[in-house]
Structures are given as structure tokens and as C-alpha cells.
Design goal:
Methane Monooxygenase Hydroxylase, Chain G, domain 1; transmembrane; Na/Pi_transpt; PhoU domain-containing protein; PhoU-like_sf; membrane
Length: 556
């Protein structure tokens, strides 16, 4: 095989591996993304639970970076503290190492079965989840196929005259090897794929342990750089999560680089072959990070908080909203379709402001402050103003000649605006007042009750985004999902109510003190969620999927 053919063979196998990892991740996120978010948010402040959740999610997603993005988003929204988010990422790194270990086994015989099963599910599935499950199985099958192709592509390299010189140089210059692996991992944005490549070279006898160890450590640090790069435009709270994880990995890699030379002879106990020794070293490195760094997560959180200051944007954002040009263009009133589109844009803006009011509610309830309370009330003023302007604009459209479809759409937009204004009032007049009372009286929720309320808030926020996506898509499947989520939120509120009563019967002091707060917060979040669910009703009603009081059973 010529050098060009060899390079093309290896490049094709590597790209297939990257695509396969992406395929698995997208399948899991599409099918279970909301559930995965709730799993992380449910843990409260329990660092061991958080680390275990991160491990499981990284195994499912085959990517610690994907878990890092989830945890960063939850931290920015106040669902997870920075301390807990760092614990999640430590577990995710261990989970990613477990994925690499599993994939290092000879599972080539399983690839045809997974491809056949995944293809059938994806092509024949009648609903989203079977199709996404098929996508996941196809991705795993392609991963195994790519590993076989990589092995075939690297086999001729054993006869290369250049390779021994390169490998020998990397074994002697560990800093260069470390930096090269770190940079390559950042470029391809997948530490799993890079580590599998390294292990593939080692399995073919092309890479000795001495050269492989710094490559393994470089790939680990490169994984942390990926999350830092992807969160560079996020809020300070989100960037701190990636920075803290990078701090842990840099700390671990620096120490490991210092000791791998003297201890390289001892690594033979980790496996019979260079590939086994390297994969077990990778697994041991990440396990040690969890053991050593988990107790230090609070210290790391304080360090990155001092390094990355909070974004002071509240006043700037308010000024931006005040200067914002309304989408309600009076010149469009003679063109009903264009005017309705403009009204839809303004309703979306109204929804975005309500979302900005709802997102920090849990942080406000945990650490109430007059400034945060005033900011939410200021945002409610923009919601009320948008509600008034939308109603006047749609009334002006209705003074023209409209067909039945246009008239129905106008009524739907008015109803949505009314419901969003009501949702904003619930946040500003109920939840904010609870925070103000908490600020004055100092009552605290029980740990169990607080965890329940955070999970409920996470569900309502997810449904809010689903509702706003539905506003521009009119997707029936999305509408059905939103209505089903309404019932699920009701069940969450009912279960939380029952648990709260059980804590009251047990005489829990914190539950007694916070009883009214707990019940009012749960009730308010349930009302907001019910208002959001109304966005699905017009779509389902037109299709006959909505009965008078509940979602109709539909096929598919």
C-alpha cells in the first residue's frame, strides 16, 4: 500500500470514528436530553451523586465535553452550584475513560449486529425515540467498524523507516508529545477518538508505553481545553465550570508528567501489552482525579470565581431593552400576513423576557437580594408594555379584511400574549414576593424540598423553551410533547406536595418553617407551566388530537 493510499485509509477511518461518536451523542441527546438535564439537577449539593451522574452521562453520551456543556448551562441557570458542577465533570472524565476502556476490547464481531438493528430501528421506527435509539446503535456500530479500519490502516506502518525515529523522539521529548496530543485533541474536538487512535497504534506495536504516556496525558488536558473553547462566549458562571475542570486536569497532568518517568517500569503491572498498560493508566489517572479533587472542589470553585468575575450586565441589558426597536411595524398593517409575522416576533420577544425573569428565580430564592428583585420587576414592566402593544397592533390588523386563517392566527397570538403576561405576573408578584419575605424573615427550605423545587423549576424552564420553539414551528409532535409535559409537571407537584406533608408529619423544623413558601413556589411554577402548555392547544385542536379536557390518543 502506497503512502498516499495509507494516509487516505487512515483519514477515512478517523473521520468515520469522529462521525460515529457524534452520532451516538446526538441520538442520546435527542431522545433523552431533557431527562439527562433533570438527572443532573436532581442531585442538589451531593457531590458524590453529582460525580456518579456525570460518569453515567458521559458513558451514555460517549463524551465528557457534552456533559461539560450540560453542567455549564445548569450552573449558569442556577440549577447547580459551581462546586457541584465541578464534581459532575470529574465524574464525566471518569465515564469517558470507561468508554475508552470498553472500546479497547475486540468487539468487531458486534458491529454487524448493531448496524443491522440500528438501521431497522431508524428506518422502521414509528416515533422519535425508536429512531433515535437506532441512531445510537448505528453510531456504536460505526465506532467498532472504524476501529477495525484503523487497525488495518496502521498495520503497514510496522515496515516504515520513519516511524521508529518519530516514536523514539516522542519517547525522549515528553513535553513535545504532550503538547502535540493536547493540540490534536482540541482540533478534532473529541478526546475519545484521539485516545482510541493512540491505543490503536499501541495495539499494532507502533507505539511503546514511554511514548504513549505523555500522549495520553496531553489528550486528557486537551479534553478540558475543548470545553473552555466551547464556553468562551457563555456567561461567567458557565465559563467557571470549564475553567475549574481544566484546572483539575492541568494539576493532575503536571504531577503525572513528573512521575511517569521514574514509574514507567512499574506500569507493566497494569497490563500484558502496551495498549492495555496505556488504557489502564488513562483509567487510573481519571479515577485518581476524582478521589483527590472531589474534596477540593469547593477550593477550586473559590479560585475560579476569583479569577473569572461575574458579568455585570443587568443595567446594560435594561438599557438595551429600553432602546430596542419594536417588531410591530405600523407600515405592515395593510399586509395582514406580514403584520401577523411581525406580531409573532414581538410575542417571541415577550416570551424571551419572561424566560429571563424565570431563569434566576431559584438563585433568587436561595440568595435573595433587593437588586435582583428590582431587576425582575423591571423586566416585568417590559412584558406588560409588550402585551399592551401587541393587543393594540393585532386589533388594528383585525380592522382590515382578514380571511379565516388570518383571523384565527390573530386571536391565537392575543391569547398567547395574555398568557405570557400572566406568567410574568406570577414570577414578579408571587415568586419575587416569596423571595422578599425570605429576605426579611430568613426562613430556609429543607434540603429535600429545595431539591424537589429545583427539579420542578428545571422542568418548567425546559417546557418554556419547547413552547417558544413550537410558536415558530407548529410541529404537532412537539405540541403533543408539550401537553404531556404539562401532565408530568402536575405529577411532580403532586409528589412534592405528598413528600412535603410527610416531612411535616415527621416534625421537620425546616419544613414547618418553610411550608407556605414551598407550597406557593410549587403552585406558582405549576401555573406558569400550564400557561405555556396552552401554546400547543390550537395546533392539536386543528388536527383533532385534543379532546375537550385531555390529549387524544394518536397513533405514532
Amino acid at each position: 500500500m502506497t503512502l498516499v493510499a495509507l494516509s487516505l485509509h487512515l483519514a477515512g477511518a478517523t473521520v468515520l470514528l469522529l462521525y460515529a461518536v457524534h452520532l451516538v451523542r446526538s441520538g442520546v441527546e435527542n431522545a433523552y436530553g431533557t431527562s439527562l438535564t433533570r438527572v443532573l439537577a436532581r442531585g442538589g449539593e451531593r457531590r458524590i451523586y453529582a460525580a456518579a451522574s456525570g460518569t453515567v452521562l458521559a458513558v451514555l453520551l460517549q463524551s465528557s465535553t457534552a456533559v461539560a456543556m450540560l453542567a455549564s448551562g445548569l450552573s449558569a441557570s442556577g440549577y447547580l452550584t459551581l462546586n457541584t458542577s465541578l464534581a459532575v465533570l470529574l465524574g464525566a472524565d471518569l465515564g469517558s475513560a470507561l468508554v475508552v476502556r470498553v472500546l479497547s476490547f475486540d468487539l468487531g464481531w458486534l458491529s454487524p449486529l448493531l448496524l443491522a438493528a440500528g438501521g431497522l430501528l431508524y428506518l422502521k421506527g414509528r416515533s422519535d425515540k425508536p429512531r433515535e435509539l437506532g441512531r445510537m446503535l448505528l453510531g456504536i456500530g460505526f465506532v467498532l467498524m472504524s476501529l477495525k479500519l484503523i487497525g488495518e490502516a496502521t498495520l503497514p506502518l510496522k515496515q516504515s523507516d520513519v516511524l521508529p525515529a518519530v516514536v523514539g523522539y516522542l519517547a525522549k521529548d515528553q513535553v513535545t508529545a504532550f503538547a502535540a496530543a493536547m493540540l490534536f485533541t482540541w482540533i478534532v474536538h473529541s478526546s475519545v477518538a484521539v485516545l482510541i487512535l493512540i491505543l490503536g497504534f499501541a495495539a499494532q506495536g507502533l507505539l511503546p508505553v514511554e511514548a504513549g504516556l505523555p500522549l495520553i496525558l496531553g489528550a486528557n488536558l486537551g479534553s478540558g481545553l475543548i470545553a473552555m473553547w466551547l464556553t468562551r462566549g457563555f456567561s461567567a458562571e458557565a465559563r467557571r465550570v470549564a475553567a475549574g475542570n481544566l484546572l483539575f486536569r492541568a494539576f493532575g497532568a503536571a504531577i503525572a508528567l513528573l512521575v511517569i518517568g521514574p514509574l514507567s517500569a512499574e506500569l507493566q503491572h497494569l497490563g500484558a501489552t502496551p495498549a492495555e498498560q496505556l488504557v489502564h493508566f488513562h483509567l487510573a489517572f481519571n479515577a485518581c482525579l476524582v478521589i483527590v479533587c472531589l474534596p477540593l472542589s469547593q477550593l477550586a470553585a473559590s479560585a475560579v470565581t476569583s479569577l473569572i468575575k461575574s458579568d455585570l450586565k443587568s443595567s446594560e441589558d435594561s438599557d438595551t431593552l429600553a432602546r430596542r426597536i419594536s417588531a410591530l411595524d405600523q407600515a405592515l398593517l395593510d399586509s395582514p400576513d406580514a403584520a401577523l409575522a411581525a406580531a409573532t416576533r414581538e410575542v417571541l420577544f415577550m416570551g424571551e423576557v419572561v424566560e429571563r425573569m424565570l431563569c434566576p428565580v431559584m438563585e433568587l430564592l436561595e440568595h435573595p437580594s433587593p437588586a435582583k428583585i428590582e431587576e425582575i420587576r423591571r423586566l416585568d414592566g417590559y412584558v406588560n408594555r409588550a402585551h399592551r402593544d401587541i393587543k393594540l397592533y393585532l386589533a388594528a390588523i383585525h380592522r382590515g379584511v382578514l380571511d379565516e386563517r388570518q383571523s384565527r392566527r390573530g386571536v391565537e397570538l392575543i391569547d398567547i400574549a395574555i398568557n405570557l403576561e400572566h406568567a410574568g405576573d406570577i414570577v414578579s408578584k408571587t415568586l419575587v414576593e416569596i423571595a422578599r419575605d425570605k429576605l426579611e424573615n430568613g426562613n430556609n427550605f429543607s434540603d429535600e424540598g429545595w431539591t424537589e423545587l429545583k427539579a420542578l423549576h428545571a422542568s418548567v424552564r425546559d417546557n418554556m423553551r419547547l413552547a417558544f420553539n413550537l410558536l415558530v414551528s407548529d410541529d404537532p409532535a412537539m405540541a403533543r410533547k408539550l401537553v404531556r409535559e404539562k401532565e408530568r409537571v402536575r405529577a411532580l407537584v403532586r409528589e412534592s406536595h405528598e413528600r412535603h406533608l410527610a416531612r411535616l408529619r415527621a416534625g421537620r423544623a425546616e419544613s414547618v418553617e418553610s411550608s407556605n413558601m414551598h407550597l406557593e413556589v410549587a403552585r406558582a411554577l405549576k401555573e406558569v407551566n400550564s400557561l405555556l402548555a396552552t401554546l400547543a392547544y390550537p395546533i392539536l385542536k386543528q388536527r383533532g388530537d385534543l379532546l375537550e379536557s385531555r390529549l387524544a390518543l394518536v397513533k405514532g
